[in-house]
């Protein structure tokens, strides 16, 4: 039995009616290479993470480029009255970070990819702690998902959400109006890992390739040189 790749008309309409006008009101747009987003088929959209606002702004970008973004969200959100119904209706995937249930979210993501969904994935797992706001060393979930499913990984870099809502703050900085910049890169070449068992070293290497692709797009977007070595919050 086929499963939906988009929410029901009710939930999609509700989200679009709220998100698109709000996003348009809050930020100006500088969107680049949206044509690199595949219009069909299962795909992993791998992005940097700067702010609690960027999932909403990126969702607007992806929707305008023909894809409904399936987002991985904290499992606690699914238990909040009304909000829980909304995130379920919008096809979000629950994640229990730091628990055995985290593997379950990857299994659900793999199923969604097989169904033809576009999964918005933050390989860092949280907003960056890098002092310069560059992408950190990533976790291996996106790489595992890509290698096991064969889905393309599309690197997406963005800049500006952190000016609207800095990490850790609850009140947005509305004025002056910010610009949300997005740049999409070509698919990450993971062909050298084909046929190799997903051991820890393989997953780390593939993850580094994904993060390097995101960082390269961000460096071009910012017009700056990225650090040679990504910040690792674990101090490895």
UniProtKB/TrEMBL annotation:
CDD domains: LPLAT_AGPAT-like. GO terms for molecular function: acyltransferase activity. It comes from the Bacteria. Residues 43-161 form the Phospholipid/glycerol acyltransferase domain. SMART domains: PlsC. The keyword NADP does not apply. Keywords: Acyltransferase, Transferase. This is Lysophospholipid acyltransferase family protein.
């Amino acid at each position: 039995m086929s499963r939906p790749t988009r929410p029901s008309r009710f939930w999609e309409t509700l989200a679009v009616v709220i998100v698109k006008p709000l996003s348009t009101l809050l930020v100006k747009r500088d969107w680049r290479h949206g044509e690199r987003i595949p219009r069909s088929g299962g795909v992993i959209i791998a992005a940097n993470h700067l702010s609690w606002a960027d999932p909403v702004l990126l969702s607007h970008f992806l929707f305008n480029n023909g894809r409904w973004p399936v987002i991985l969200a904290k499992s606690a959100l699914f238990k909040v009255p009304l909000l829980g119904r909304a995130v379920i209706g919008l096809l979000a995937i629950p994640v229990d970070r730091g628990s055995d249930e985290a593997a379950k979210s990857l299994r659900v993501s793999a199923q969604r990819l097989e169904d033809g969904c576009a999964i918005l994935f933050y390989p860092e797992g949280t907003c960056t702690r890098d002092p310069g706001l560059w992408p950190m060393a990533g976790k291996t979930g996106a790489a595992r998902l890509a290698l096991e499913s064969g889905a393309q990984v599309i690197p997406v870099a963005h800049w500006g959400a952190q000016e609207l809502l800095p990490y850790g703050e609850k009140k947005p900085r509305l004025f002056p109006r910010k610009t949300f910049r997005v740049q999409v890169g070509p698919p990450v070449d993971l062909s050298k890992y084909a046929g190799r068992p997903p051991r820890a070293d393989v997953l780390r290497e593939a993850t580094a390739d994904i993060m390097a692709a995101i960082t390269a797009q961000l460096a071009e977007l910012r017009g700056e040189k990225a650090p040679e070595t990504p910040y690792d919050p674990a101090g490895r």
